[in-house]
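New here. Invent one.

***
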Amino acid sequence: MGALSKEYGLVVLTGVASMVMIGHLAIKVGKARKKYNVPYPQMYSNDPENGQIFNCIQRAHQNTLEVYPAFLFCLAVGGFHCPRLVSGLGAVWIVSREVYAYGYSTGDPKKRMRGAFGNVALLGMMLATFNFGRHLMGWTGPARLRPFRGSPAHL
């Protein structure tokens, strides 16, 4: 097994930053549970007055956890091939999840869309990971078409 590049340290640090973000969102849910009196193991509030705000805070955290495994996979595996790119996209995704949660925690679910830019970052991470797999398999893609130059044999 080859040694990891020094730049893979960026991937590791991005992973640590993502754990801090997940912890921050969890703390927000815990505080909201106390504030809006939503006991464990109840996932959502039925309170007609303040339930919507708690439910939005809880949902922001839960939605982040739903996509977190894909994020970590792309970060760890895609980071082998393009550590700076994947770490940068990962940092953008982390910031976007905080923006998403902040908007959602207002109680207006439409405001969560302010953090939608993270979807582009995650897509970039997925593509970088796919590209690494393609590279490992030796796939070079289709031959380039040269409609005005003729086939390469005739050049």
The CA atoms of residues 7 and 84 lie 7 Å apart. The chain has a mean pLDDT of 91.
